[in-house]
């Protein structure tokens, strides 16, 4: 089952914060976050494992709520380079990564 | 360390033809997964190869087939191409451990006319 991402799109000014949510109707074992810029391949951001702690690097962090079957990606003090489409992927028992439809983030100067 | 590479970068085919796409996995990785990404959508899992064996398949018809070679590079073959097969085809490699991060190649953009 495809995870549901929200919002579908968000527009920010440089320096503003954003939160992108990823929800699943099935139990989550791991959530993988990627960012894809137009015409390029998805780039790995981070992986959240069941029972693991909140992760982050630079000003991007993520959390994993097993009870709510939800993960959230937090972008703090956004930079122009953060623009792109963010995908969450959930890993199934057959090693299949199922991606959401994506959240288009636009950061303007 | 070499990243994931794919060839060709772009391809134009006509309906009914067959196509082969290639992927070289990242150094040290023994698992390759293939995805189809239609415009404006997230990548959709086609199948995964681990140590030359198919190790999971998504909801794609049998005309989508693949191979993995002893050096862990991989091919995706699509027979009897349809217009809806037009998409970006991505391969991703990983070390094969459960929940391991998958690293994507640049993709092959296929256009079927």
Q: What is the overall number of helices of chain A?
A: 0
What is the strand tally of chain B? 11
Describe the sheet with the most strands of chain B. 7 strands, mixed
Shape of chain B: globular
* Helix percentage range of chain A: under 10%
Form type of chain A: globular
Poorly predicted residue ranges of chain B: none
List SSEs of chain A in N-to-C order.
EEEEEEEEEEE
**How many E strands of chain A?**
11
Ends apart, CA distance between termini of chain A: 37 Å
> What percent of the residues of chain B sit in helical stretches (DSSP H or I)?
under 10%
Q: Which class of secondary structure composition applies to the elements of chain B? A: mainly beta
Tell me the radius of gyration of chain B: 13 Å
Beginning-to-end CA distance, first to last residue of chain B: 38 Å
Strand content of chain A: over 45%
Radius of gyration of chain A: 13 Å
pLDDT under 50 segments of chain A (min length 5)? Answer: none
Oligomer category: heterodimer
């Amino acid at each position: 089952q495809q995870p549901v991402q929200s919002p579908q799109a968000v527009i920010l000014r440089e320096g503003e914060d954003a939160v992108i949510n990823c929800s699943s109707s099935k139990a989550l074992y791991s959530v993988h976050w990627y960012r894809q810029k137009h015409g390029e391949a998805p780039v790995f951001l981070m992986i959240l494992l069941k029972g693991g702690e909140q992760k982050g690097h630079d000003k991007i962090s993520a959390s994993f709520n097993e009870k709510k079957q939800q993960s959230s990606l937090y972008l703090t003090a956004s930079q122009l380079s953060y623009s792109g489409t963010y995908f969450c992927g959930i890993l199934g028992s057959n090693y299949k990564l199922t991606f959401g439809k994506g959240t288009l983030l636009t950061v303007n100067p | 360390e070499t990243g994931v590479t794919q060839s060709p970068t772009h391809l134009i085919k006509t309906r009914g033809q067959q196509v082969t796409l290639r992927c070289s996995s990242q150094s040290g990785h023994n698992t390759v997964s293939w995805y189809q990404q239609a415009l404006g959508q997230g990548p959709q899992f086609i199948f995964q190869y681990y140590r030359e064996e198919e190790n999971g398949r998504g909801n794609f018809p049998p005309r989508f087939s693949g191979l993995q070679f002893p050096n862990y590079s991989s091919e995706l073959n699509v027979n009897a191409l349809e217009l809806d097969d037009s998409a970006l085809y991505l391969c991703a490699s990983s070390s094969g451990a459960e929940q391991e991060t998958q690293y994507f190649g640049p993709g092959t953009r296929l256009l079927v006319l």
